[in-house]
Specification:
The complex is a heterodimer of chains A (174) and B (118).
Chain A lengths: L11 H20 L14 H12 L1 H19 L5 H20 L9 H24 L9 H24 L6
Chain B lengths: L2 H22 L4 E8 L2 E7 L4 E6 L4 E7 L2 E6 L6 H4 L9 E4 L4 E7 L10
Antiparallel strand pairs in B: 1-2, 1-7, 3-4, 4-5, 6-7
Classes of the chains: A mainly alpha (174), B alpha+beta (118).
Amino acid sequence: MPAASIELTATADDHRIARYAAAAIALSVVEAAIPMPLPGVKPGLANIITLVVLARYGWRDAVWVSLLRVVAGSLLLGQFLAPGFFLSLAGALASLLALGLAMHLPKRGFGPVSQSLIAAFAHIAGQLAVARLWLVPHDGLFYLLPFFALAALLFGLANGLAAAKLLEEPPQPH
Amino acid sequence: MKPGDWAVLLLFAAGTGALAPIAFSGGAAEKAVVRRDGIVVAELPLTQARRIEVAGALGTSVIEVQPGRARVAADPGPRQYCVRQGWLTQPNAIAICAPSHISLSIAGRAASHDSLSY
């Protein structure tokens, strides 16, 4: 009796998402090597990819790339299902929701820098919410808020500028 | 950078600036700690108003707590220094009733000073 076989066919969409997710995962692995003064503060370079995907292919693809990056990135770093994973996930979900709203800002006045800043602040909001409710159930956590906000401001701006620069070039044909 | 980007950047920068004082506040006052001979006899959260009586070396002292502050309301000591110090609001502020062997201090989360007295 022949074994039942399941054939998975990858569409062009899948290939494109996988390609961008791979770039995002690579960036999150690279930035894990950068020492940071506060736990939880990271440049979030992978969000540059999310922003580019959002601008080129829309919100659905951005969600895929972002969540694939969170799961696969944490697997590579040995963080899967560890507290840091849930903080990343909460931050990613919050910033994806914020991006879903921010992408409807008028294109003439608002670019990737706005989206990046909004996503960065949504990210710390989501992260802090989970941390406060679950990991550190104490208001003392909020003393770190100014530092998280400062990091979100700087890295949100930097990532937004990087995404804007990348978006000046047309996408490479695959 | 588009005009809206500058506006968003300024908005978030202003928000971040507004949060800055939190970093330097050294922790909000959280609870009043009453000690006799250095031994803690009562810890009162600074969230609800309360009055307690503490037996000291000379007699009974009265500690009063209101939201965010605490004081020695009455003390049998001769010079009344700790009573006249009034309300304590800052973390690590302390009122010492030496004759009664009683002290009242405010505990916060972050220790910005080793102690505060006047």
